[in-house]
Specification:
This protein is an alpha/beta fold and 244 residues long. It has nine helices and ten strands. The chain has an eight-stranded parallel beta barrel, surrounded by five helices.
């Protein structure tokens, strides 16, 4: 059973290093579903992470219908990942009709070369999930991250189970969204998913003394809250699964 934890800063990487999980998904901007991390964070992560890294390849927030320029950016970012020794890239692209963008996905898979390829939760807003799964298998994706087209993996457990049956080992099905120590064991029992994905996030307050009430985001209070991985939650999850 592989457990993947998504992180957006080096502080969280150090936490995950001591958690016993199998893989990090490195992103920026987890609040919008994750975007491509910057070069500096990626280079640092490769140095300090003690497990394989899956790098998010997503140039902007919003939908998954990408322009020609955006696809070129994604190819360049995949090349950067290859050069730095990243284990896996995480991609997702759809058409105007909400179907898997075959041409773009094929281009990104080819750019990845020997790296593993995860198709991310763009799948959860796509049309015809059973057809989409066969397309991803044909395109050579390594795994699919999905919540079963529901707000959480638990709510989407019936579809996840169907996808696992349909995949029949041809692609790894990784359940994600709302996965926690409280539901992981039951989720696996119902879906038989191959892998689990979670953020296990908590917020800590900044040690910096603010000198004004000016906000960089929605509120000054939000600027003081830093998202980090909760090592205790990861330990509880592993314990709930009998892994520690």
């Amino acid at each position: 059973m592989n457990i993947e934890v998504c992180v957006e800063n080096s502080e969280s990487i150090h936490v995950v290093n001591h958690s016993g999980v199998e893989r990090i998904e490195l992103c920026s901007a987890l609040a919008v579903g994750g975007l491509t991390p910057c070069y500096g964070l990626l280079k640092s992560a490769v140095k300090i992470a003690q497990m394989p890294i899956a790098m998010m390849i997503r140039p902007r927030a919003g939908d998954f219908l990408f322009s020609r320029d955006e696809v070129a950016m994604m190819v360049d970012d995949i090349q950067m990942a290859r050069e730095l020794g990243v284990h896996c890239v995480v991609i997702g692209a759809l058409t105007e009709r909400g179907e898997i963008d075959i041409a773009t996905t094929q281009r990104l898979v080819e750019a990845a070369g020997p790296m593993e390829v995860t198709f991310h939760r763009a799948f959860d807003v796509c049309a015809n999930p059973q057809t989409a799964l066969e397309t991803l298998i044909d395109l050579g994706c390594t795994r699919l991250l999905t919540s079963g087209q529901a707000p959480s993996a638990w709510l989407g457990r019936e579809l996840i189970a169907k996808l696992v049956d349909q995949a029949h080992g041809r692609i790894s099905i990784m359940a994600g969204a709302g996965v926690s120590a409280q539901n992981a064991k039951d989720l696996l029992a119902v879906t038989h998913a191959d892998e689990l994905h979670l953020s296990a996030k908590r917020f800590r307050y900044s040690a910096m003394a603010r000198q004004s009430a000016v906000a960089m985001g929605k509120s000054a209070d939000d600027d003081q809250r830093i998202m980090v991985t909760d090592g205790e939650e990861l330990a509880k999850l592993r314990q709930s699964l009998g892994l520690s």
